[in-house]
Amino acid sequence: MSATTAPKKKQVDSGPVLDWSAGHGPVTGALSATTGALAVATTGAATGMPPMWAMAVGGAGALGHTVAGLKVRNAGRTLAFKAASWLVGAGWTTWAMTTGPLSWAALGSLATIGVGMGAGARSVALYEEAREEEALAAERRLIAQELSAERRAIAAQWVERIARICTITVKVKGVKMWETGNGYSLDIEPQGGITYDRIAQYAAALSADAKLPHGCTAAVGPGVHQGRAIVDVTTRNVLSEARAYPEDYSPLSILTGIPWGFRTNGDDVPAYLREQCALVVGPTGSGKTNMLHTIIGGFARAEDVLTWVIDLNAGSAGLPWVRHALGGELKQPDGAPVRPGVDWLAGTYDEALKLLDAAIAIGLARKRGYQDLMAKHDTDLLPVSAKIPQIMLVIDEGAEILVSTDRQMKELAKRILEFIRMHRSMGGRTVITALGATGSVLGNLLIRREAKVRVALTGGETEGMDLSRMFPGRKGLRVDQAPFKGAGFMGTPESPGALFKAWRIKPSQIRDITVATSQRHPRLDDVSVKAAGPDYARRWDTERTAWMRDLTPDAPGTEGPTASGGGLNLSAHRAERAGRESEDELMRRFREEIDAQFPTAPDPNASPPASSGLNLSAFRKAQEPEQDSPAQRAALAALLAAGPDGTGASAIARALADEFGTTRQTVVGWLKTWADEGTAVRVGEGTKARYVHRDHAPEPPANQ
């Protein structure tokens, strides 16, 4: 054994170790003083020491402790006790040296002095602790008073402001400053039976009177009971800030909420979708696609969710989550392949039918197959978990599908509504997007009842953005409060509609999330796999996913607008166009044969000749204009989505400008043509004129 380790072994075996650097307590201090006095008195008596020396030392000790006590601001009683202890001890030592320290009288008196010192030391120690705590409490009270003064000033301002603007008397029960420093909340109690919505009507005026910055509001909501209200006052505009999607890709659960963005106070706003569907509306350019990727990213992080996506616009909402994984471009750190970020992507009509049929079949099979499990958990809701995941069906522009008059879209709409209506308890919910919050979108009672999680991305667009329909009972919401891309309003059953902003998620983050969550995605349970059948098992087959990889330029001779030049060859577009044209195929062939034999209508756009003959160009013009131009189809869809309120050429042109470059003059021509054909109805005159789709046009009076 080395010399350095031997002492350590001896120290461990020597028993408890005394801390000689520690200060004395009441007992040890009194014991030390009395034993020290006895030792000095015994030694002094034996050696003939002059007794007054002990008295001189005691006086010096009393003086030194007094000076030291003054420096640390001890109380007067503490200073007096310490000085008295020194003097009493010195006096006993002097007396004992003269009369003898070992007599019973000397020892008894010394013991009495020791007990008195211990009791006195304990008393002054408690007093000093009390003084210190009181000093700290006084400091805290001072800080609280300063803060309370600020809060009282804020409360007084708002009491006066609400009385002046709303003519309502209120009492402020509390003012809470937000930890983020972005504002504060007032807990108010309106007098006279006034409810919060009366004050909410004046939210804009209150914000202006408070001179809040642009993008900041005074939002009024319900309080702890019907007689109270909460006023959230934002003082810093966080909606104008671009915030990236958090790089924390930790696991989530559908049962504990999926964050979709952040409020003006800086708090995340979660969506609880175990039993609720969601509706997200936003015009072109409002950030709706980015919001959709944020939603899918949250679902990808969840351990008990499988995401199925329907996007008939070439599957663009789901392609970033699928294409790189299917192409083998992404690998896990250990080299293993990466699973797609969504579990099923349908970009064509036929694939969407397969997906919806499988979803409906899964719901029915779960109702039969998990009766024992639900009985075991004593619930009528399927216990969703990683073993039995919830299916979140994300449908981009699904609201337009629900209101479409097209025969194929009606088939999809029927299945979507059946899925929403039947499979809430079996872990099947939807997220549907729309271009605007109009009567046609919110006219379906099932959507209004089930989609309690609602998002309106305004981007400053006022056309087709009826916030009163989107958030009924929530007053004071205005589009101009959120003029920034990605900003808008979000409401849930747990959190009333209020300002929020979605995070910005970039393609690189989509790839990172896909890799980070690849092993986290649950597998569909056996009961559901059996019910879904081969359509689900073969969803990633090469022939069914070829359109996802077909991004090469068109070969010579292929059809499509890019046949003569560079561009993308998306087979999904061709398949969709073929589906739309299939029902008119026989009529077109018939017209071609007739025109070949009767060349009286060589040009469908030319005026019909005066000579006699068979001319079917009028039929062609009446039936085909919406089939030939994607821009015209999009314009007609916007007209239909506007509902009974109708819309105008300027609004449609703005909606199509980014994607098609359509001008207002072009849209004016289309609207006039549709009005002549009966597809649209013109309402109003002059600058107030608007067009309403015939499906939403008011019925004419009975006498006409």
What do you see in this structure?
The chain is α/β, with parallel strands linked by helices and 704 residues long. It has four domains: 27-167, no CATH class; 168-234, no CATH class; 258-548, Rossmann fold; 629-704, Arc Repressor Mutant, subunit A (Orthogonal Bundle). It is 48% helix and 12% strand. It has a ten-stranded mixed β-sheet with strand order 6-5-14-13-12-7-11-10-8-9. It has a four-stranded antiparallel β-sheet with strand order 1-2-4-3. α2 runs parallel beside α4, α9 (319-326) packs across α17 (507-516) and α25 crosses α26 (649-660).
Question: Could you list some keywords that capture this structure?
Answer:
single chain; 704 residues; alpha/beta; Rossmann fold; 4 domains; ten-stranded mixed sheet; four-stranded antiparallel sheet; 27 helices; elongated
Please give the order of strands in the largest beta sheet. 6-5-14-13-12-7-11-10-8-9
Low confidence ranges: 1-22, 552-584, 593-627
The residue fraction in helices comes out at 40-55%
Shape category: elongated
- Tell me the number of helical segments per DSSP (H or I, 4 or more residues long): 27
Instruction: State the secondary-structure class.
Output: alpha/beta
In the CATH hierarchy, what is the class of the largest domain? Answer: Alpha Beta
Question: Radius of gyration, Cα only, in angstroms?
Answer: 41 Å
Q: Report how far apart the termini are.
A: 117 Å
Arithmetic mean pLDDT: 79
| CATH H-level homologous superfamily name of the largest domain | P-loop containing nucleotide triphosphate hydrolases
- Per DSSP E runs of 2 or more residues, the count of β-strands stands at 16
Would you give the CATH topology of the largest domain?
A: Rossmann fold
Which CATH architecture of the largest domain is right? 3-Layer(aba) Sandwich
Number of domains: 4
Share of β-strand residues: 5-15%
Main sheet makeup = 10 strands, mixed
